């Protein structure tokens, strides 16, 4: 079976964009923190499958739980940046974006002793200008474009749906989150869609995308393995469905995924396909 790139956005349940209207940044410290335990589940699961992945770590998490970052790194996984504050890129200024990138990058490099070369924007919110800034700030690849072209929060940045890995005009490598082409483009990269789609159907979709593209990039969040996370009640039905649906089954489905496919880091995959990142 061909390798798939597997990635995790390391953030806590209260960082997600769905809850921004009820959870302020000033509240983050006072809420129950569960990202350590959830990420530990992923590390154990990956170790049991002898699989490696890319962990896009939020700077806020890295600063609060530095030993967690070190453990991920020592376990042989790739550490990449998820920014620091989990702000949507298209909602902040270019200077704010640069500051957010630099703060997270330095923090992660100090913890790992290695250059951080990959980035993923919160909620796939990258912009055209943001891609140029990433290149200027020393990143070698980005994974912030979701090929799904209908979503209320993702960036509407123009992208070619015919290739998952693309070298941009500025030299930055873009690793896109794939869709499965049918009558319409179906979301198939992971996250809530992974929780929603029955696993046998999802696995067949991954095989189909691999056959078409020779590659696949999967993503998930630690909180998606945490059914017992604190529940927010003052949200609407759609928000409850978006965040909580399928949490009980996610860990079991992830175990199947990493055993059905050979999983590797984004950095490893790109290096092995003649992109020569390092």
From TrEMBL:
Transmembrane segments: none annotated. Residues 20-219 form the NodB homology domain. Coiled coil: none annotated. It comes from the Bacteria. InterPro entries: DUF3473, Glyco_hydro/deAcase_b/a-brl, NODB_dom, PuuE_HpPgdA-like, XrtA_polysacc_deacetyl. Pfam families: DUF3473 (PF11959), Polysacc_deac_1 (PF01522). PANTHER family: POLYSACCHARIDE DEACETYLASE FAMILY PROTEIN (AFU_ORTHOLOGUE AFUA_6G05030). This is XrtA system polysaccharide deacetylase.
């Amino acid at each position: 079976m061909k390798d798939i790139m597997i990635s995790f956005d390391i953030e806590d349940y209260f960082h997600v964009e769905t809850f921004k209207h009820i959870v302020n940044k000033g509240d983050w410290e006072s809420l129950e923190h569960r990202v350590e335990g959830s990420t530990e589940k992923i590390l154990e699961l990956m170790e049991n499958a002898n699989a490696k992945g890319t962990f896009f770590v939020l700077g806020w998490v890295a600063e609060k739980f530095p030993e967690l970052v070190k453990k991920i790194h020592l376990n042989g996984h790739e550490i990449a940046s998820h920014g620091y504050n989990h702000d949507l890129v298209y909602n902040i200024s270019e200077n704010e974006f640069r500051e957010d990138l630099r703060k997270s990058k330095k923090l992660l490099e100090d913890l790992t002793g290695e250059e951080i070369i990959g980035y993923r924007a919160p909620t796939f919110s990258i912009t055209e200008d943001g891609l140029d800034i990433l290149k200027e700030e020393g990143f070698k690849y980005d994974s912030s474009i979701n090929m799904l072209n209908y979503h209320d929060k993702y960036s509407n940045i123009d992208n070619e749906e015919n290739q998952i890995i693309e070298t941009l005009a500025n030299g930055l490598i873009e690793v896109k989150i794939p869709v499965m082409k049918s009558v319409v483009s179906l979301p198939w990269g992971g996250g809530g869609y992974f929780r929603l789609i029955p696993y046998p159907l999802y696995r067949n979709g991954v095989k189909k995308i691999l056959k078409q593209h020779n590659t696949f990039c999967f993503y998930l969040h630690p909180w998606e393995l945490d059914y017992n996370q604190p529940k927010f009640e003052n949200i609407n039905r759609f928000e409850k469905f978006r965040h909580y649906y399928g949490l009980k089954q996610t860990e079991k489905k992830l175990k199947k995924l990493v055993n059905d496919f050979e999983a590797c880091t984004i950095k490893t995959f790109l290096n092995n396909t003649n992109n020569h990142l390092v």
